[in-house]
Bifunctional lycopene cyclase/phytoene synthase (Colletotrichum melonis), 586 residues
Amino acid sequence: MGYDYALVHVKYTIPLAGLLTFISYPLFTRLDVVRTLFIVTIAFTATIPWDSYLIRTGIWTYPPNAVLGPTLYDIPIEELFFFVIQTYITAQLYIILNKPVLHAQYLNSPATLPQWIKTAKPLGQLALFSSVVLGAWLIAKEGEGTYLGLILVWACSFALLTWTITAQFILALPLACTALPILLPTIYLWVVDEMALGRGTWAIESGTKLELKLFGSLEIEEATFFLVTNMLIVFGVAAFDKAVAVCDAFPDKFDKPADALSMSLLRARVFPSSQYDMERILGIRQAVTRLARKSRSFHLASSVFPGRLRIDLTLLYSYCRLADDLVDDAETPDEAASWISKLDRHLSLLYKDPDATSAPLAAKYAADNFPESALSALDLLPSSLIPREPLAELLKGFEMDLSFSKDTFPITDPEDLELYAARVASTVGQACLELVFRHCQHNLPDYMQAYLRNTARQMGLALQFVNIARDIAVDAKIGRVYLPTSWLKEEGLTPKDVLANPNSEGAGNVRRRILAKAFDHYGEARDSMKWIPSEARGPMVVAVESYMEIGRVLMRNGGAAADGSGRATVPKSRRIWVAWSTLMTA
């Protein structure tokens, strides 16, 4: 009896697993629990027969003075724990690195699959099949290549199966989502294994190994083992995530979302890619791109929303952003007014029939009157889940923007400021909350839902005030001043003075007054967010706090680092910290 192997876990694997758990804890969902249990169970079950065979045939040995003693099928308890802890570590790293990624956008049908993926998949199959054949040859040959052969036949057979059914999805994902969860744990475990082999905690029988070392005491067989097993873990979790993505991307095909853990998830696993609605997937891709480009704070916050809610929030934001861009990018006021009129007409057609049978009419109108790049945002607006009123009010806010001219500044007093913010931001907050009510299970009575809608409107005011305070210089470049004229007058300024010098002391004083009002509204609404359904509460708080952090920086410094366009911003590392710490306490 000894403690050497147990100490390997105490010193190296358990602390790393604990660190990853600490990082992922506020992000962890019920689906992540199932995802982890799924891959740990498969890995544990698949490895026991193989490892037991190695021990019983004397290929793999453990000195009696290095292990505690209890075994299962001749496998020491420490080794059994290694199956679990390695899988857990790699799965946790995969989950953390994949949180920012909306997996649905990486689905492809055979018709839309990039050529390089079409080429890479069979090459991967060939490489894995060749590895199995090589392994079988080494086993049949017996002698020094036996252990490597057993690794290749066992691991690459499973990898070939997983690759065959999931390669198109795995290859489409960013490398950071797949390569890093394979390589980082592999390198770490190489170092741990090298130290253990050097101390004699475990050993490979001479005559069954190639006697080649990657570095130090690390046998090439052990290096291969950790590489291919971590590859198997990532492939397995990716296969699970593909089913999740399919289930969440196509609500018309699957009545339950993935996090409901229903039969829909199993059906999604075998749903043929030839039946994917690629217009919807391409629209989701465009929406994600628009979100990442236009709102880094909400893009970060969106990563912690549950699947279908995340998709619909992204599509809602894409619509709002598109509408704003159409108006802002118009070359003349008349063109901008025309876009508002067309957007209003589109909404009228979309909401004409409560049974949504008018959607084809709206789609046809959009195709006839909007640029092709706008069609997906218009067609994929989740109108069946959102009332028309907030979106119609948003367009009225855009109409207020058109009131600006070189001699006209419509924000004359704080009441005008509140009205504008209510139309362009409170409306979006309310629409987001409607999606939360529709997607999340809750037992909120009608009066509580009405109360939360009011809270959303209050918080919308707070966020828009921060936005206005942040973008004084940016808005001045396009001839707009959202600072109340009455407040400017108290500072001895006019809107034209702000256009000429948006960074003046007087403008800074008005900025601070707007920020004070922002935090007043925030303070009134923040505590009420505890009543938001639990699935969305944390993510909604993250969305708010990520944006309010900009306001805090402005309050402390009177400005923040700029991103090159004159727009104040907060470093990504700080936004991540705010999001993580917020989720820990939400």
Observations:
- Residues 560-566 have pLDDT under 50 and may be disordered.
- The first strand starts at residue 60 and ends at 61.
- The CA atoms of residues 350 and 579 lie 36 Å apart.
